[in-house]
Amino acid sequence: MPRKYNHYLLEKDNRCLYHMFAAEIFMHQFLLASAVRTMNPEEADWFYTPVYVTCDLTQQGFPLPFRAPRIMRSAIQYIAATWPYWNRTEGADHFFLAPHDFGACFHYQEERAIERGILPLLRRATLVQTFGQRNHVCMQEGSITIPPYANPQKMQAHLISPGTPRSIFAYFRGLFYDMGNDPEGGYYARGARASVWENFKDNPLFDMSSEHPSTYYEDMQRAIFCLCPLGWAPWSPRLVEAVVFGCIPVIIADDIVLPFADAIPWEQISVFVAEADVPRLDSILASVAPEDVLRKQRLLASPAMKQAVLFHQPARPGDAFDQVLNGLARKLPHREGAFLKPGQKVLDWNAGLDS
User: Fold this and answer.
1) Are 164 and 238 within one domain?
2) Which of 69, 111, 313, 322 falls 20 to 30 Å from 201 in CA-CA distance?
3) Do 21 and 126 have their domain in common?
4) What's the DSSP call for residue 62?
């Protein structure tokens, strides 16, 4: 691919290497050196197009929502005009990384993402994305849900003694309101974070603040429960951090589809709380039996569990890269109708241009 689709974007702004969307960059680096790569396209089960859709950033460090669909559309036009492989299937044997808030809808606000929908040219492709929510416009059948990027080396540097007592009952650091984008309140996180704050800000069992202290990672290792509520999207790096630090994730995001469910027993290691039940969060967590807490903690202590949510550099057996390859392998052989007849067209190249 021409460097404008990947390397030039990274050279322009290397913050892309460190934010929660960085899986698209590290997946590219992994595949370049991977044993699963072939230089003979006729041997390939899958085609991968390295496009860094979240690497054109605002001054504040957020992906520009109007840029991502344009660069992806341009990349698809390029591969369709340059090689015959896209046109054989119109993307059915191609996969793309889409680690945006709402995947290939390419917007951070749900309402706008739903209006926009998945980029029509990606309708036949497999999307590897952080966004996962059942029965949602921005998640198409066959997508592979991945964890957001969290820096493994950075977390490793903050490990404390595993024998440290977990003296914090419930822990959360992050926004409760997004005054810049949702000044009236209630729309951000569908009101769930605001409800957490309003109901439990004075509860001594809940260690919560919008400040992000330097001891954030150490504090998670001292907590029994780590709150993982939805934000603009259902997912966040807190889920990865909670697993790595052995803190029981409290998942508050209705209909969320979690990453690598075949490798990570989310139901056994987490507590799920419906958004409508947030006002009862204290009693829900207090009712988790001590033996259940210990069972979840023992499962979270498994190195394989932590490995599966991390994009290691270099890659390690069983890590998130391996889980993506497993997901792609399970989708083989390609479904009936993937390969088109000569001259057959399915996709409308003009669809979605108005948005």
Assistant:
1) yes
2) 111
3) yes
4) P
269 close to 305: Cβ distance less than 8 angstroms: yes
How far is C-alpha 144 from the geometric centre of its chain's CA atoms?
10
Q: Please give the residue range of the domain that contains residue 71.
A: 3-149+313-330
> What are the start-end ranges of the H helices in 187-272?
192-200, 216-220, 238-244, 266-269
User: Domain for residue 325, yes or no?
Assistant: yes
Q: Are residues 297 and 326 in the same domain?
A: no
Domain membership of residue 319 (yes or no) is: yes
Q: Which residues contact 158 (CB under 8 A, 6 or more apart)?
A: 217, 218
Question: Cα dihedral angle (206, 211, 217, 223), rounded to 10 degrees?
Answer: 0
Where are the extended beta strands (E) located within 37-133? 47-48, 94-97, 126-129
CATH of the domain at 282: 3.40.50
pLDDT digits (tens, 9 = 90+) for 293-349: 999 999 999 999 999 999 999 999 999 999 999 999 999 999 999 999 988 999 988
Which amino acid appears at position 266 of this protein? W
- Name the pTM for this structure: 0.94
pLDDT in tens, 97-111: 999 999 999 998 899
